[in-house]
Amino acid sequence: MTDITAQVDVLPGLDPRAPLLHVEDLNVEFRTRDGVARAVNGVNLWLNPGETLAVLGESGCGKSVTAQAIMGILDTPPAHVTGGRVLYRGVDLLQLPESERRKVRANRIAMIFQDALSALNPVYTVGFQLGELFRVHRGTSRREAKRRAAELLDQVRIPDARRRVDDYPHEFSGGMRQRVMIAMALALDPEVLIADEPTTALDVTVQAQIMNLLAELQRERNMGLMLITHDMGVVADVADRIAVMYAGKVVEEAPVYDIYAHPAHAYTKALLESIPRLDLKGRPLNVIRGLPPALTDIPSGCAFHPRCAYAREICRLEPPPAYQIAPQRVTSCHFVREVLGV
Amino acid sequence: MFRYIVRRLLQMVLTFFGATFVVYALMFANIDDPFQALVGDRPLTDTQRAALNAQYHLDDGFLTQYWHYVTGLLTGDFGRSLTGRSIGEMLAQAWPVTIRLALLAIVIASVIAVGAGVLAGLRRGGAFDTVTLVLTLIVLAMPIVVLAPLAQLVFGIQLGWFPPTATRDANLYQLLLPALVLGTLVVATELRVTRASVAENLRADYVRTARAKGLAPKRVVGVHVLRNSLIPVITLIGVDIGVLMSGAVVTEGVFNIPGVGFNLLRGIRTEDGPLVVGFVSVLVIVFLVINLIVDLLYAALDPRIRYE
Amino acid sequence: MSDPNAVAVAEAPSTAPRSLAGDAWLDLRTRKIFWIAAVLVVVVLLMAVWPSLFTSADPRDCLLARKNAGAGGGALFGYDFQGCDVYAKTVYGARDSILVGVTATLIAGVIGLVVGLVAGYFGRWVDALLSRFVDIVLAVPFILAAIVLARRLSSNPESNGIVAVIVTLGVLGWTTAARVMRSAVISAKNQDYVAAARMLGASPARLMLRHILPNAISPFIVVLTVLLGINIAGEATLSYLGVGLKGDAISWGLAIADAGPYARTAAAPLVWPSVFLAATVLAFIMLGDAIRDAFDPKLR
């Protein structure tokens, strides 16, 4: 499958030595009748080949919007990318004309969605939907496209793939459908895979199978995987690094072991403390009080301050700067020392 | 798919008996003098009475009457009108022009509805959408009894763009104005359903997937959105056939087209009961058959339905 | 979070407690189309109740000498082929149209409400039976069934046919209302709060009236509003076909039917009843549209 990359038109300014994916100060807002919702407010992220970055946060924190802004599939209106850069191998995708950007999707950066049943078109066979990628991006014939579709289904371990290419999405089980989604994302051998809550809609046992499959395929192909989730359990198993998001910002970023051992942001710490633990059975759970803020009305200063146990006057007044506290560790908390307990 | 067809056929058999029973009951149930009811205000001679009895068995019990009526329908014997003509023959003469008229109306309506509906749905809230919505609203509010005479007056008589009447072997041009009028009856609902369906499907998750696959907007809409959006429109066409049949009665009357509706209208005006019952029964059967075909088409378009 | 567009809506701060009806009214007040429709409806209702407010002429005062005379001499739209004042006839035509429309819609509404509620609430064989029945009624195209029934009901030569038309439209027009009510009830019934109320021991009657009906009523009202317009058009169609109002009744449908053959020489007697009829139907359809949009929070 390596020859495929050569067939793709070369993007102007593409630098193979530049970082794989680098999101700089990304801003996205939704302009609705009820006001402007600032969904993403200056997100910084980076991703290397073969690496898994988990983007963690409650629903509404802007993690899915960030992913869709990277893909360029937000609905405009109401969504508007108001600032920042999305650099793929040194090329700012936000500056590309739409026709060029389309070639990046699925070819270079692909995406898996949460609910595979609604993410697949109900009236076409999975073979058609998979083969469509080869037909549109590679100009292959219908027959050849179908053959490759069957090959892909086989690669994601769908039994009897050759026969099942002619089945419709609703004829697959939830886990199998998510495998189809994965096959679709991997069809054109992308370098970056964004998985938006790929296992949330699945049973726990199936979740593990899907995550293992993803990890395995990632290793085989040395892809950068951006895993969007709210499930700390999933993160601990597969991620190399974690970016914690709150109210449209990355508040803390760190290698996975560091973050579990020494969270450096009050929000991360509160999140970890809110996980039920067997050794603390019988004690009341530390839940985070209050609700995530409305994106139309994000609190001043540090957006987390109304819910924060460490909050003081400064948190309300000034947004915390990004502190580099160790190599690969960044946190935006005024009281990082107190949180770390040093 | 096979099970779906079988089930749908069984349903149709049930609906056939139900619907014909409804028509028959509406006409004859619980009535003092069914013979008089058939002929309206006209005087009724004994020979006519005997002829009607031979046709409708009105002296028998109600269910027996219904049985004779249904077997007549199923064997193609629709009886005779009060003027003594065979209803089957009248139908055979009247059908061709009505079918051409209805087909023309459906084609005109569908092309406009799907074309404009997709455009309006893609740009919801835009200028084209707003104008289309207002237009459909006005069209929806135009009963056929307003539309047909006014269209004839304005375009047929005053402007003279179209012939104001049509004959049995009318050509396309002669049928165009009546077909436009008839098509107007269904175009607004079809357009609105297309628009709503396109707008809804555009927000569907699979459209996001299609864009994430790097497909061009043309393909996203033309391949992914369109097929899903047409499913509710197709089902609507089944209902529309009924509207067209009702509309054809008025339209053919106004434009003097000697089709099924024209004959039916004449039957009503001359109080020819057998003719009315015969024609309505046949129209109902045609309606049922077309709806069956539409449902099968629907199953072909939407794979989910086949496995229900 | 799967739908980025939902972000803003889902996170909207909750302010004072609001009701769906209250919200709908707030929304309705800002819609131009609602006010146009409301004004039209009020004018037509006034015309129906109090026609002498609009004209001092008597619609039955016809003189053949004035046959097809043009406007003037107090007759705003001129005279028809029988020499009747077209404007006066058109104004007085509103009464029977509205009377038929409202009563037929009420009958259809009651039948639709009961059938839909019972089918939706009890489900199983009750639902199967009633739904098949609805299918059968729907299998007969509306006007065709109406022709047969209205012809049958109006066989009494003395009456002017108004009762026959009302019964015909009412008895045949309830199917959509029943279907909408049924599906609204089914979706309301499956809500968790209804299950909760049932577990707390609420009786079927209480469940239906207090918990299900309020949530199913708005689509039902929308259907009835539109049905009102359809019934007014239906009366005109039946009258036009000769199975509706007749005798000395004054109706837009009758006027259109009568004026048709003379349209070449005198267009006004055809045009004005048509315009009034279309405007009235339009008003009710617009009203239904506006109410539906206001009640549909998804569109907001």
Describe the structure.
The complex is a heterotrimer of chains A (342), B (308) and C (300). Chain A is an alpha/beta fold and 342 residues long. Chain A contains 14 helices and twelve strands. Chain A has a domain at 240-342. Helices cover 35% and strands 23% of the residues of chain A. An eight-stranded mixed sheet of chain A has the order 6-7-8-3-9-10-12-11, with helices on both faces. In chain A, strands 2-1-4-5 form a four-stranded antiparallel sheet, covered by helices on one side. In chain A, helix 6 crosses helix 8. The relative contact order of chain B is 0.14. Chain B is mainly alpha-helical and 308 residues long. In chain B, helix 5 packs across helix 8 (172-202), helix 6 crosses helix 8 (172-202) and helix 7 packs across helix 8. Helix content of chain B is 77%, strand content 0%. Chain C has helices at residues 6-10, 20-29, 32-49, 86-122, 124-138, 142-153, 162-172, 175-189, 192-199, 204-241, 252-259, 268-295. The longest helix of chain C is centred in the C-terminal third of the chain and has 38 residues, at 204-241. Chain C is elongated, with a radius of gyration of 23 Å. Chain A binds chain C through residues 30, 32-35, 37, 39, 59-60, 63-65, 68, 74-75, 78-79, 113-115, 196-197, 292-297, and chain C through 1-2, 4-5, 7-13, 300.
